[in-house]
Amino acid sequence: MMLAELAMEAGLPKGVLNIVHGTHDVVNNICDGEAIKAVSFVGSNTAGMHIYSRASANGKRVQCNMGAKNHAIILPDADREATLNALIAAGFGAAGQRCMALSTAVFVGGSEAWEDELVKRASSLVVNSGAANDSDLGPVISRQEEIFGPVLLLMKAESLDDAIQIVNRNKYGNGASIFTTSGVSARKFQTDIEAGQVGINVPIPVPLPFFSFTGSKASFAGDLNFYGKAGVQFFTQIKTITQQWKESSPQRVSLSMPTSQK
Length: 262
Description:
The chain is built from 8 helices and 10 strands. It is an alpha/beta fold. The relative contact order is 0.14. Helix 2 packs parallel to helix 3 and helix 4 crosses helix 5.
């Protein structure tokens, strides 16, 4: 509401931005309304698939960015200090309540060497009001039905291949990262992993807006992704115009397709 008020103060014409409050009936009216040609949604899988099915059945263009279960693979050769900081920040930053938060760390070769330090750093985070200057974590705003909170699961894998299989068995496909100093391992990971957004020593691989937010698998429903060229195309109705301007009429009727255009 504050953003809408600021938009109005900035001079945005009435009707360009509308905020409608409500639940099921409002959502269904948006999916059914003839004046609405496209629906873009971000939220849970249950709501997203309902919106995708109902809106697309009404002939609308639909994109739904839905749930995620983002993994990071940590190889033994990873930079220890940088990786620990990245895991803590990506797992607990914003109280873990962001769609691209890191929820699972898969340690290749065992996690024993990392666990104590991870627990120590997590335990030192200050939980307080989000407005407090010394606060690291604010309160969560709802139940953790999708582990949508400050939770970091630690798993183990014997090899990089095993770790990649663990990640790929996950039905979601928003993002996945690897921490390593090996270019060979990084290249194998980015080729074999089944996620739309891939990070190499980057814990939350969200691209800049001029690149697409390329969620995949159960994390996305639709044909055109968010952001970038695909995002522009989603809100664009393409029109092809063919014209012909003849200076004089033909002497006889021609049944061939027009070959000259002006």
